[in-house]
Specification:
The structure is a single chain. The protein is an alpha+beta fold. It contains 4 helices and 5 strands; from the N terminus they run H-E-E-H-E-E-E-H-H. The chain has a 5-stranded antiparallel sheet with strand order 2-1-5-4-3, sandwiched between helices. A hairpin with a 4-residue loop joins strand 3 and strand 4. Helix 1 runs antiparallel to helix 3. The protein is globular and about 55 Å long. The relative contact order is 0.16.
Amino acid sequence: MLGPQSSLVMYDEEYQRILLLLEKLLREANSKVIFLVDKNGQLIAATGETANLDTTSLASLTAGNIAATGGLAKLIGEKEFSILFHEGEKDNIHISIIGGRVILVVIFDQRSSLGLVRLRVKKASNELGIVFEDLVNKTEEEAISGNTPSPFAEITDDDIDNLFN
């Protein structure tokens, strides 16, 4: 079994399922932006009003926030804080850990409420957890069968020649 820190291969089928779940959550929670980040700070997927956001920095800072609060949790004898909430003048950020593996971030304003966001996130977290379990299983099956495609499989000698010419 792969641990929470093991790397996963993101397949298009699961990525599309994740995007659909995030878009559904965006509508149902009446939020502005939703993104999913791995614990290393890599953006997995984003939806909503992302045009004016530096999603790369947001993803990295979110992972750092989770790491910092994880340190706080350990200091007081907790395993982790699985939900974080930051309230601003205009926008709020709800952060939750899904399956110990990924971080779900929901940015919302006065058009929604913390209660609605928490309710919708709980449902979406269960559904996203299923997708990530499927990904873990698929990754393990590929590793066992030896069918893991090489990232270099599609690169030809001509591609290499063209790169250096």
